[in-house]
Each structure stands twice: as C-alpha cells, then as structure tokens.
Design brief:
Number of strands: 0
Shape: rod-shaped
Structural class: mainly alpha
Radius of gyration: 75 Å
Strand content: under 5%
Helix content: over 70%
Order of helices and strands: HHH
Distance between the termini: 166 Å
Number of helices: 3
Largest sheet: none
Length: 207
C-alpha cells in the first residue's frame, strides 16, 4: 500500500499596513513559491512506499484481509469442487478396478470350469474306451469259443464222415480187388474162383 505525503503550505501573517501593498505581494509570492517547491520535493524525497516501515502495519493488515478472503474463497468454492472432482475420479477408478477384478475372476472361473469339463470328458472317454475294449474282448472271446466249439464239432463230423468214407472206400477196394483177382485167376488158370474166395485170399496175403 502506498501512502501519499501531503504538505500543507502555511501562509505568513499579513505584514503591517505601514509596509505597503508593494512589500506584501513579493513576500506572499515568495512564500507560495517556496511552499509549492517544498511540497513538490517532499513527494519524491521519502522511501519507496512498500519498503516504508511506517506503512508495515497497514500492509500486514491488508495482507491478512486479502489472505482471509482468498482462503474463504478457496475453502467455500474452489476446494469443494476440486475435492468433488478428485473423489469422483477416485470412485471411478475404484469402480473400474472392481469391474476389472470381477471380470478377471469370471474369466478364471470359466477357465477352471473348462479345464474341469475337459478333464471329466477325458476321463469319461477313457472309461468308455476301456469299457468298450473289455466288452469287445469278451465278445471276441465268446465268439472264438463258440467258433472253436463249432469248428471242433464240424471237424469231428468231418473226421467221422472221412472215416466212414474211407471204410466204405476200403470195402469197395477190397471188393474190386477180389473181383479183379477172381477174374485174373479164371483167365490164367481157367478155373472159376468165387469173389468170396478171392477176398479171403487177399485178406490172407495182407495179414
């Protein structure tokens, strides 16, 4: 705060009437000139107003007043708005973090469920494969056993038929051989030999 120094010019009392009008005028003129000169020089002769120690109390007073007004303005208007903005931003950040954590938890739960379902599917597929293999093995064993039995029966039947056919063939061969032998003897010797005698003779030769 600046303070202007005002110098009041005082006029000298009027001179006695005996001195005359001519003497009063120069004195008055000189005094006014001196006063104006002193006032003009006094306005610039003092220190810089903010650095003047005599003005410190008023400067401190106005500083406190303006600081109080500034504090009141900041506390009533600016700071609440800034606090509301910061609180809203913090709330938004916390909400975003909460949503991100929730999405992360959901993703992890989905991954865990997928891995569990995959493990269950693998175990189920392994069980089905094992069960199917066991059933197929049992069925194959049963079919093999049944086939072995069928083949055994067929082989036994075939062997029986072969034995029967062989026996019949042997009898037919014996008959044919007896007839041939009888014919050969009759041709060579002219003696008629019966088939039975020829067969007995062949049997004796074999025996």
């Amino acid at each position: 705060m600046s303070q202007t120094t005002i110098v009041v010019a005082q006029t000298t009392p009027e001179a006695p009437a005996a001195e005359g009008h001519s003497a009063e005028t120069p004195a008055t003129a000189d005094t006014g000139h001196t006063t104006e000169t002193t006032g003009h020089e006094g306005g610039h002769a003092g220190p810089f107003p903010p650095m003047d120690a005599s003005t410190f109390p008023s400067q401190i007073f106005w500083l406190v007043v303006f600081f109080g007004l500034l504090y009141l303005l900041m506390s009533r208007f600016a700071l609440p708005k800034m606090g509301a903005v910061l609180e809203k931003r913090a709330s938004t950040i916390e909400g975003d973090l909460a949503r991100a954590q929730a999405l992360k938890d959901q993703t992890q739960a989905a991954v865990d469920a997928y891995e569990k379902a995959l493990a269950d599917a693998r175990a189920k597929a392994q069980a089905i494969a094992t069960d199917t293999r066991n059933k197929m093995t049992a069925e194959m064993d049963a079919e093999r056993s049944a086939l072995d039995k069928t083949l055994g029966a067929k082989i036994a039947d075939a062997e029986a038929k072969i034995a029967t056919a062989k026996s019949k063939a042997m009898r037919d061969v014996s008959d044919v051989a007896a007839e041939a032998a009888a014919a050969i003897v009759a041709e060579l010797t002219g003696t008629k030999v019966t088939k039975t005698a020829a067969a007995d003779a062949i049997a004796d030769l074999k025996g």
